[in-house]
Design a protein that fits this description.
Radius of gyration: 14 Å
Number of strands: 2
Distance between the termini: 34 Å
Strand content: under 5%
Helix content: 40-55%
Number of domains: 1
Largest sheet: 2 strands, antiparallel
Length: 126
Amino acid sequence: MTCTATACALILTWFAQHPSYDASHREAILTYMAHESHFQQCVDVRSGGFLFQWAGVRRRWIKEKYAGVCPTVPSQLDFMDWELRTYWPHFFATPPQEALAYFRYHFGQGRMEYEGQTERAARRKN
């Protein structure tokens, strides 16, 4: 499935406003979104929710942050950016050929719940 014109425009605009993401890291994130949600902004199924298919405690955080309403594409990208900068800042220094593997391993699969993060620590973000 390809990205809709609206979703793609919003994603590309967001990345243009966030130049710290180089081409290989943008591509890793786009590949991950395509695999997880097929760029469907509001997909919310038992196994995960929204563009990045957040699961577990992370899914609860984003739902609470946006009062259960599907967050806009830029809001979801802002949340992803916050998570990366807070919990996985090494993503930005990852070599281009390893960016997708790093992103999938650290960001994907509800990984935060397995890396000792707690809801209390994450709530400090607000």
